[in-house]
Amino acid sequence: TRVLVLNGPNLGRLGRRQPEIYGTTTHAELAHRCVEWGLERGLAVEVRQTNHEGVMLDWLGEAADERVPVVLNAAAWTHYSYALYDACAQLEAPLVEVHISQPKDRPEEFRHHSVITPHAVSVVAGHGVEGYRMALDVLVEHLGQ
Ligand code: DQA
């Protein structure tokens, strides 16, 4: 089964970006791990990252058209993008929302709301980059049903 792991804005700077919050693993390392975790689970994982909302919308449209399951870290868009809300509503295969930090435990009020959660079968947050492995496990459970 093909799976798209889609990462939104600023996640390309993982490893250098606020390591006290997001850790020291780079996006390239995360992508490599996701591919390996996928292989261990019989999934063909493709990892993409963009800082451009329209690009992310195109990828979600592709996932909808091709009925591909998605692991999505929409980063800051999570909290306010109704365009992403509408794009996620069109997905047919399961969507798992992931965050490296736990947005609900962070001081900024704007992080406490997600437009992705209504469309997700599950949310994995606060487990660092291991959360992506957990998200793939959740997907496997849902795909088996
Ligand atoms: C994030 C949490 C968001 O609030 C933040 O805007 C991000 C990353 C996370 O993975 O913890 O960019 O999605």
UniProtKB/TrEMBL annotation:
Reactions that this protein is recorded to catalyse: 3-dehydroquinate = 3-dehydroshikimate + H2O
Known EC number: 4.2.1.10
Sequence positions that bind substrate: 73, 79, 86, 100-101, 111
Gene that produces this protein: aroQ
GO biological process entries: amino acid biosynthetic process; aromatic amino acid family biosynthetic process; chorismate biosynthetic process; quinate catabolic process
PANTHER family documented for this protein: CATABOLIC 3-DEHYDROQUINASE (PTHR21272:SF3)
Record-linked Gene3D superfamilies: Dehydroquinase, class II
Pathway membership: Metabolic intermediate biosynthesis; chorismate biosynthesis; chorismate from D-erythrose 4-phosphate and phosphoenolpyruvate: step 3/7
Pfam families: DHquinase_II
Keyword Ion transport: no
SUPFAM superfamilies: Type II 3-dehydroquinate dehydratase
Protein function: Catalyzes a trans-dehydration via an enolate intermediate.
Residues the record marks as active site: 22 (proton acceptor), 99 (proton donor)
UniProt name for this protein: 3-dehydroquinate dehydratase
Keyword Protease recorded: no
Lineage: Bacteria, Bacillati, Actinomycetota, Actinomycetes, Propionibacteriales
Record's subunit section: Homododecamer.
UniProt keyword terms in alphabetical order: Amino-acid biosynthesis, Aromatic amino acid biosynthesis, Lyase
Site description Transition state stabilizer, residues in chain: 17
The organism of origin for this protein: Nocardioides marinus
Record-stated family: Belongs to the type-II 3-dehydroquinase family.
GO molecular function annotation: 3-dehydroquinate dehydratase activity
